[in-house]
Design goal:
The protein is an alpha/beta fold and 247 residues long. The protein has helices spanning 58-66, 88-93, 111-116, 127-133, 135-139, 150-161, 180-195, 207-213, 231-236, 238-245, and strands at residues 20-29, 32-42, 47-51, 72-78, 81-82, 96-99, 168-172, 199-204, 216-221, 224-230. Strand 1 and strand 2 (32-42) form a beta hairpin. Bound molecules: adenosine-5'-triphosphate. It comes from Deinococcus radiopugnans ATCC 19172.
């Protein structure tokens, strides 16, 4: 592997202000310093991926942005407003929605109850729209969340947060452990969301999925970003990226 370096992204510099801007983010679990000066941004309507092997700091970055991890320093702005000091419920109220790796659905509630529980906002997804996107959820409407397959749980976890009409969706490994046909369908929905103007920050270890969807990629190694790649760079440097992901 070549020495880590920041490659220049071939896309033109952004002409509109970023929707999300993270500057010099450092995060800690107790005495353990796990993020070391993370700088990244997401433009309106952009899909950006965070890639890197297990433990590189991708999930911690999402948790830090959402305010689920409070022990961090630096700057996080959303639509030009500082959100670093806000509790996570107020971060969500600004228009960020997070689907964690463990798919936060209510296991004892039915699919329909899961869909109807989050507060609805104007422009947010209705239950009918969720059923149109993933018809299997309509078939499973009366089943408890605990009885769903992994793919069905992932679909439900994504559509239930869309009820709040977020402007930025943070997805943590949405393809993990799912059959290729389900991964394909989730990718289709993410592309539809982007077409509707939603921005997405995507943590992925599935390079095929990440390179299909993302406009730009940040490569994480040991709590730092060592590369920023455009869509074209990521395709051309696929073998290097696979090395970053291998254990
Ligand atoms: N709750 C925690 N307490 C202490 N250390 C943690 C905790 N969660 C994560 N870590 C450590 O922080 C570092 C970054 O982990 P993080 O989960 O952000 O990595 P990741 O790139 O998302 O990988 P993964 O795909 O395994 O989640 C790792 O060294 C991990 O062991």
């Amino acid at each position: 592997m070549t020495a880590p370096h920041m490659s220049s992204v071939s896309a033109a510099p952004p002409t509109v202000p970023p929707l999300l801007q993270v500057r010099d983010l450092n995060a800690y679990y107790g005495q353990s310093h796990v993020l070391h000066g993370i700088n990244l941004h997401v433009q309106p309507g952009e899909i950006v991926s965070l890639i890197g092997r297990n433990g590189a700091g991708k999930t911690t970055t999402l948790r830090s942005i959402m305010g689920a991890l409070r022990t961090r320093t630096g700057s996080v702005t959303f639509d030009g407003q500082d959100i670093l000091r806000l509790p996570s419920n107020r971060v969500a109220a600004r228009g960020l929605a997070w689907v964690p790796e463990e798919r936060a659905i209510m296991s004892t509630l039915t699919v329909r109850e899961n869909l109807e529980l989050p507060p609805a906002r104007p422009g947010g997804w209705t239950t009918e729209r969720a059923y149109e996107a993933f018809p299997v959820l309509r078939e499973r409407g009366h089943h408890p969340g605990s009885k769903l397959s992994g793919g069905e749980q992932q679909m439900l976890a994504i559509v239930r947060v869309l009820r709040s009409a977020p402007r930025l969706l943070l997805l943590d490994e949405p393809s993990e452990g799912l059959a290729p046909v389900i991964v394909q369908r989730i990718g289709d929905i993410i592309e539809e969301l982007r077409a509707d103007g939603l921005s997405v920050l995507l943590v992925e270890q599935n390079l095929k999925f990440a390179t299909r969807l993302a406009d730009r990629h940040y490569v994480f190694v040991d709590g730092e970003i060592v590369e920023e790649l455009s869509r074209a760079d990521a395709v051309a440097r696929r073998d290097d990226l696979l090395k970053y992901l291998s254990v």
